[in-house]
Design a protein that fits this description.
Order of helices and strands: EEHEHEHEHEEEHEHEHHEHHEEEHHH
Strand content: 15-25%
Radius of gyration: 18 Å
Number of strands: 14
Helix content: 25-40%
Largest sheet: 9 strands, mixed
Distance between the termini: 27 Å
Strand order of the largest sheet: 6-5-1-9-10-11-12-13-14
Shape: globular
């Protein structure tokens, strides 16, 4: 029995949630539903333009949200990332402490914590402008091999591939540590542009992985197909276990040679971001606690539905109750 059920490697970002109506969003001329990297000055200019609002701060990052979901359900989690010693970094580390998640690196002195301004519009789309700041400094030296060895699963965030000089080295170091200690490896695309732009490094990691999480668009980018079903069929020969989520069309699952289609739960979305993060974290919780993969995926789909019916990329209450409801 290892100390941690799940350890994540990813960007440590504080989400700054900003709700705008269509009249306010239109003049920004942003492509809706996209994530773009930006400098701190541009991010601050955006916040200043809506200074009358009181934005909500939530500690996040894609894989961080998955580790949080696993922890909320009762799993023991750890996370490898970088924050600064500013107010956002202190907020981040304090929240992880309260969630009983081992944040493996101390805040870096004099550095600025990464932030993501998440604009939520009435159609439930989330448009993100992200300043990675010190989160992009994540490198091999920040990877604690002993914590990975003490974990059942390592979960690697695709966005880290976008930093070839530092992040990709951190991924290689973490995979090396996992392979040396028998820790299973899960990988997420994070976005279709990751396999498209950083395909060589991504596929190198995928060959070493035990499980891939991706949505339909990402799956098609990885597999080079035109439908989610075709991508799922092709990915079976690339990675031993795979989950392809497809929104209202449910999820395709292959785990331990058994295949399933998991139907979606109907709902009225309020904020579409966070569903995939929740699914991954809940599914990994399930399979590390003796729950059959099909049942774990069904419960994960239910929790993902609950996430998108509220504002914010994760649930703050009722997670275990929802899990029990779905597992009946």
């Amino acid at each position: 029995m290892k100390e941690f059920h799940l350890i994540g490697l990813g960007n440590s970002l504080v989400d700054i949630l900003l709700e705008l109506n269509d009249a306010e969003f239109g003049p920004l001329a942003f492509e809706k539903g996209t994530m773009r990297l930006t400098e701190r000055e541009e991010q601050q200019k955006l916040l200043t333009a809506f200074h009358g609002r009181e934005p909500r701060l939530v500690s996040g990052g894609s894989v961080a949200n998955s580790v949080i979901a696993c922890s909320q359900l009762g799993g023991k989690g750890a996370f490898i990332g970088c924050v600064g010693d500013d107010r956002y970094g202190l907020h981040y580390t304090e929240e992880f402490r309260e969630l009983d998640i081992d944040f493996t690196n101390a805040p870096l002195v004099g550095e600025t914590t990464g932030t993501c301004v998440s604009i939520i519009t009435p159609d439930a789309e989330r448009t993100m402008r992200t300043c990675l700041a010190v989160s992009s400094h994540l490198a091999a030296r920040h990877v604690p091999a002993e914590k990975i060895a003490a974990s059942e699963w390592l979960f690697v965030e695709g966005y880290i591939f976008a930093n070839p000089a530092t992040g990709q080295l951190a991924i290689r170091e973490s995979l090396k540590a996992a392979k040396a200690s028998g820790t299973k490896i899960a990988l997420t695309c994070s976005d279709a542009f990751i396999p498209q732009v950083f395909g060589e490094a991504f596929h190198e990691a995928l060959k070493q992985s035990d499980l891939l999480f991706c949505n339909a668009t990402e799956a098609m980018a990885v597999a080079g197909t035109s439908t989610a079903e075709e991508a799922f069929a092709k990915l079976k020969s690339v990675v031993p276990n795979v989950v392809v989520t497809d929104g209202p069309n449910g999820a395709f699952l292959r785990y331990h040679d058994a295949e399933h289609h998991i139907p979606a739960f109907e709902c009225k979305p309020a904020d579409l971001t966070g569903a995939g993060d929740m699914f991954a974290g809940a599914f990994l919780y399930g399979i590390t606690h003796g729950i059959a993969a099909e049942k774990a995926a069904r419960a994960a789909n239910f929790l993902a539905m609950k996430v998108i019916t509220q504002i914010g990329a994760r649930l703050h209450h009722g997670v275990r109750d929802y899990w029990r409801e779905a597992c009946v």
